[in-house]
Design brief:
This protein is 33% helix and 28% strand. It is an alpha+beta fold. The longest helix has 11 residues.
């Protein structure tokens, strides 16, 4: 069965991404990135932009230890 729903890409303060059905209230702590489309289109977009899976706080902490 094909998923014909429209999704939007969300991001949180840790720069982690999630897919969310369009038209549903966005959960606290998340905001829309502006990208919408089919589930596959949104997944492809997330794969393209989310190249470092570590949360932002961890990346910053590791960078401070290196510098």
């Amino acid at each position: 069965m094909a998923d014909e729903n429209t999704y939007q890409v969300l991001i949180n303060d840790e720069e982690q991404y999630s897919l969310w059905p369009s038209g549903k209230e966005i959960p606290a702590g998340w905001r829309a990135t502006g990208h919408r489309g089919s589930r596959q289109e949104c997944m492809d977009h997330v794969d393209e932009v989310w190249t470092d899976m570590r949360p932002r706080s961890l990346r910053e902490r590791m960078a401070s230890l290196e510098g």
